[in-house]
Specification:
This protein is of the alpha/beta class. It is built from 13 helices and 19 strands. 32% of the residues lie in helices and 21% in strands.
């Protein structure tokens, strides 16, 4: 009798991909597969791809090579955004046996069995099963339970926005949502596994509610989702991963500020501080709205952490436009930046726009904003010293230290102590270490 088949997974990209990989992994478990580390010999390797940056495309080939090295005879499968956008390109990569698009990826096990039972499968390119993206109109619930301290819960998929630089609508289809009851049931299941923090994820989660019934009918909104999740027993912390500024309403900010479980941490994409560039990007707001969102958050939660996505080097961005962005960011009461260097993506309007910014200029601008981000994070951490916060400790021993995050996303460290793993503790933040992390004292427990 043959031994149990083994499967290994590699995820590129966002938290949404992690939640979906975890769901796909559970489907393999139901088929009797054992999950192993990607560096080990497995019968099947599943790579969940991303296409948001140029780098993710290049990394795919290296990951396939790793799998080839671990077991040349294994079935290698590509799923995810890049697999939907460029299936033929991935199928042509040496060693790839199967490429599944946006709707097919959740049925991966049914495709796999045929391949495993065919030892003579062709080696001159992988099989492709990818629907037209307009057929990706149904919703598949997903959540990740990999890292014990935190789970990613998918509440929404797809996007109806038409930002000129973005391939996500082409890779994931129209905006659609899980039903409210499903989200609450999944949150309850996650809480039952002794996971202390749930991160809400999706492509455009502020659009939650749209497509809840397979059409554009709305019954629920993101505000109602937040209100209902706050009532679920057993959840210690809820975190909103990323939300568009035009969809983050005052009411939602108020609910979070009074919430039992939602933490004071927002990640709000800006992309540019120049209204001219925001227009070229076809973003649905101007910078004045962004100022309002930050001001509202800080008014009701002065200690809130606010992270910002920004793209540098977009076509048409002059030195003056970039400086406008730099100075705008510098004027905001925000905590850190995620800086993306613009890269041309096929089939997007921006790829054919005039005013292409030279690569070396893009890179210089990116470096400037990364420097600004480091300064902002430092200033935010300094503003939190001497305050009392609650830390959730992670499960990894990193060079003799345990790390954790406060509710408002300050990263702390302490000498490794396995008893702290996955525990919440009240601490007083005391000082910033040389590596930029914060040291603390445990808050004294009242007798």
């Amino acid at each position: 009798m043959s031994s149990t088949k083994k499967v290994a997974f590699y995820t590129l990209g966002c938290k949404l991909n992690f939640s979906e990989t975890s769901t796909i992994a559970r489907s393999f478990g139901k088929e009797g597969f054992d999950k192993v580390d990607f560096s080990e010999a497995a019968d099947v390797y599943v790579i969940n791809t991303c296409s948001v940056t140029e780098n993710a495309d290049k990394r795919f080939k290296n990951i396939v090579k790793q799998a080839q090295k671990a077991n040349p005879d294994a079935v290698k499968v590509a799923v995810g955004c890049y697999a939907q956008l460029k299936p033929e390109e991935l199928a042509a990569v040496d060693g790839v046996d199967l490429v599944l698009g946006a709707t097919e990826k959740f049925n991966v096990t049914s495709y796999i069995n045929d391949l495993l039972n065919n030892p003579d499968r062709a080696r001159d390119g992988g099989e492709v099963h990818a629907c037209e993206i307009q057929d990706a109109d149904f919703y598949v619930s997903s959540y990740s339970i990999g890292d014990r301290t935190r789970a990613f819960l998918k509440v929404q998929d797809g996007c109806d926005y038409k930002c000129t630089y973005c391939t996500i609508p082409l890779a994931r289809g129209i905006s659609r949502s899980d039903t409210l009851q499903n989200v609450l049931d999944n949150a309850t299941k996650i809480a039952a596994q002794d996971i202390k923090e749930i991160v809400l994820t999706g492509v455009n989660i502020g659009d939650y509610g749209k497509g809840e019934f397979g059409n554009k009918k709305h019954e629920h909104t993101f505000l109602e989702l937040v209100q209902e999740l706050d009532k679920v027993d057993g959840i210690e912390r809820l975190r909103i991963s990323s939300i568009e500024p035009n969809l983050l309403k005052n009411e939602t900010i108020e609910v979070v500020s009074n919430s039992r479980t939602f933490v004071p941490h927002f990640h709000i994409p800006l992309q540019s501080g120049s209204n001219k560039i925001l227009g070229l990007m076809r973003r649905r707001y101007q910078r004045e709205l962004y100022v309002d969102r930050v001001a509202k958050i800080k008014e009701v939660m002065p200690h809130a952490c606010i992270g910002v996505d920004v793209i540098v080097g977009f076509p048409g961005e002059t030195d003056q436009d970039f400086l406008e962005t730099y100075n705008f960011l510098n004027s905001l009461d925000i905590s850190y930046l995620h800086v993306f260097t613009y890269s041309e993506r096929d089939n997007t309007p921006a790829a054919t726009m005039d005013g292409v910014v030279p690569k070396n200029v893009r890179s210089k601008r990116s470096k400037m904003l990364r420097g600004l981000s480091a300064k902002m994070r430092r200033a935010f951490y300094e503003s939190q010293l001497d305050s009392k916060r609650t830390v959730l400790f992670e499960s990894e021993n990193k060079e003799g230290y345990i790390h954790g995050f406060t509710e408002n996303y300050v990263k702390v460290k302490a000498p490794w102590n396995p008893e702290l793993v996955n525990q919440l503790h009240e601490v007083q933040l005391t000082s910033i270490d040389d590596d930029g992390m914060v040291r603390f004292d445990f808050a004294s427990v009242e007798a």
